[in-house]
Amino acid sequence: MVRIGYTMMTEQAGPRELVRHVVRAEEAGFDFSVTSDHYVPWLRTQGHSPYAWSVLGAAAQATSRIPLMTYVTCPILRYHPAVVAQKAATLQLLSEGRFRLGLGAGENLNEHVVGGGWPPVDVRHEMVREAVEIIRALFAGGHVTRHGRHYDVESARLWDLPGQAPPIGIAVSGEQSCRLAGQLADLVIATEPKPGLLEAFDRHGGAGKPRVGQLPVCHDPYRDAAVKRAHAQFRWFGLGWKVNAELPHPDSFEQATQFVTPDDVAASVPCGDDPEAFVEAVRPYAEAGFDEVALVQIGGEEQEPFLDWSEKTLLPALRDAFG
Q: Which distant-in-sequence residues (6+ apart) come within 8 Å of 64 by Cβ?
């Protein structure tokens, strides 16, 4: 069985619209939701980037059933891990236990805004490890004082703690991050259906833990329009995370993708309104062993038609195919 989720993509819609969309996703029957946490959109054509945690707080109050999750928050520069712990605990209380804290090593695109430079990947992973240790210590209650290599915490305490701490997920893209996730996380997060990632996660202690994937899709009754929109807003996706993590600005992504064609995008993103194409795009995740797949409908103004179509057509097709 594969649970199907809905993505609140903060880079392509404003805050009120994002909350309205997740309410509709709950009504349509999606099993869970995830939320990107960006300061900057990938491309200027996306055009948005509200503060994800305010959106999540509003979503927690506007919905009653659908689980919420950051996909993902970077706890190493733009946010201090002690602040991330406070935000996550508050979200867990507001949502009455529906929140999961997805974490990752981040992208230069979002983290450079606070200055201080962009550390190399080995250092970023060290920082994630230390950040997770701080967050878990604060979730455990009491006062926390730590003086680590990357962070200082001085007599910090979370005064509003949920009965059950939010599960922590860690995003992976290679062996180092899989080791981190296997050792430290309650679940693993990935944006590619590579069996090797899950095998590495299991090898480092992740066996039996949930695994959550994400898939961009572009629904439109006119396939050509869907392909055009996917190319305009999502052609960066195929660069891979070793590139995506390093580029500092939407204009950098514009230049890096100048030779990506609409056909290139359509080869990896299901476009149009044939549910079988979407089913086949989810299949590699199911076969790789993912328990959950969050769909990203490309285009901020195209969410409600997608959600209507999902309720009537796509979700029944996916459940027929994957239980």
A: 26
Q: What is the pLDDT of residues 46-70, one digit of tens each?
A: 999 999 999 999 999 999 999 999 9
Cβ(220)–Cβ(273) below 8 Å: yes
The Cα 67–Cα 35 span in angstroms is 11
pLDDT tens per residue, range 253-269: 999 999 999 999 999 99
245-276 b/e with 16+ CB inside 10 Å = b? bbbbebebbbebbeebebeebbeebbbbbebe
- Alpha carbons 139 and 35: distance in angstroms, whole number: 22
| pTM to 2 decimal places | 0.97
Rounded to whole angstroms, the maximal C-alpha distance in the chain is 58
Our CA angle for 152, 158, 160, nearest 5°, is 165
Q: How far is CA 152 from CA 60, 68, 138, 144, 202, in A?
A: 31, 29, 13, 10, 32
| Structural domains of the chain, ranges and CATH numbers in brackets | 3-322 (3.20.20.30)
Dist CA 72 CA 124 (whole Å): 15
Beta strand 292-297 with 32-35: parallel, antiparallel or unpaired?
A: unpaired
Cβ atoms within 10 Å, residue 117: 9
Name residue 52's amino acid: A
What gap in Å lies between CA 323 and CA 319, rounded to an integer? 5
What is the set of active-site residues? Answer: 38, 107
